[in-house]
Amino acid sequence: MTIIEALTGLHPYNVSQLVRDPASGKLNWQELVQVDPRFGEIIDKMICEDHHQRYQSASQVLKDLKDYEYSQLGSTLQI
User: Fold this and answer.
1) Which of 27, 29, 66, 76 is buried most, with the most CB atoms less than 10 Å from its CB?
2) 52 φ/ψ sector (left φ>0, alpha ψ -120 to 50, else beta)
3) pLDDT above 80 for 73
4) Contact 8/28 with Cβ under 8 angstroms?
């Protein structure tokens, strides 16, 4: 949840008051800040309410972050 606090600027108490979407269970934080949708998906998976759907290790998070970083570099390079 620290990442949500950092991105939105919300106090930790206010972050706990964010509403989860009843259908998906996702925390509705992306409406407060503009982030790339793919980066938002990574964060959503990190904070998923269902622990079975969360990342199971830090190495999985790092892999997705590296893949995201490489995709961003590729989209800005002019060949």
Assistant:
1) 29
2) alpha
3) no
4) no
Measured CA distances, 41 to 18, 26, 44, 64 (Å): 17, 10, 5, 10
**pLDDT tens digits along 39-61:** 999 999 999 988 999 999 999 99
Answer yes or no: are the C-beta atoms of 62 and 46 closer than 8 Å. no
Report which of 45, 68, 65 is spatially closest to residue 56, judged by C-alpha positions.
Answer: 45
All residues at 6 or more sequence positions from 39 whose CB lies less than 8 Å from its CB, including other chains? 68
Which tens digits make up the pLDDT trace of 19-32? 888 888 888 888 88
Neighbour tally for 29: CB within 10 Å: 23
The token pair at 45 is 């998976």
